[in-house]
Amino acid sequence: MNLRLQFVAASRPAEFDKAFGIIADGRPEALLEFPSQTFYAGRQELVRLAALHRIPTIWNAREFVELGGLIMYGTSLLDLSRQAAVYVDKLLRGAKPSELPVEQPTKFELMINITTARTLGITIPPSLLARADEVIE
């Protein structure tokens, strides 16, 4: 596939600018944000930096795309909350935590910000738009 992967660490918001400078110097075709609480808390700045450097980015939470990020693909937090409620109900009814099965997420969401795609000069294929759970215009 002729891919070159580059890992750039930023463990706190003060490192975001420097990290994006390093990323931009490599002239990437895309960026994948690795989920973390630090990145989620700094989502507004991260989306701003991705736009500033014109880097197409895929995020893990819908809030990034709502702020102007390009694409989000990840677990449905609403569905995870529903799953958690089922567990809480079982615990309140007397189930032992050690007897409850470990479950993996089962619902994933795809969200696309078409306005951001146009700004970046990217044409989103109709087949991908058709699969999206939500498209922001």
Q: Brief description of this entry?
A:
With 137 residues, the chain is an alpha/beta fold.
Question: Secondary structure elements and their pairing?
Answer:
Blueprint: H1 16-25, E1 31-32, H2 37-41, H3 43-52, E2 57-59, H4 62-66, E3 71-75, H5 77-92, E4 108-113, H6 114-120, H7 126-131, E5 134-136
Parallel strand pairs: 1-2, 2-3, 4-5
Antiparallel strand pairs: 3-4
Description:
By secondary structure, this protein is α/β, with parallel strands linked by helices. It has a domain at 13-75 and 107-136: Response regulator (Rossmann fold, 3-Layer(aba) Sandwich). It is built from seven helices and five strands. It has a five-stranded mixed sheet with strand order 1-2-3-4-5. It is globular, with a radius of gyration of 18 Å. The two termini are 31 Å apart. The mean pLDDT is 93.
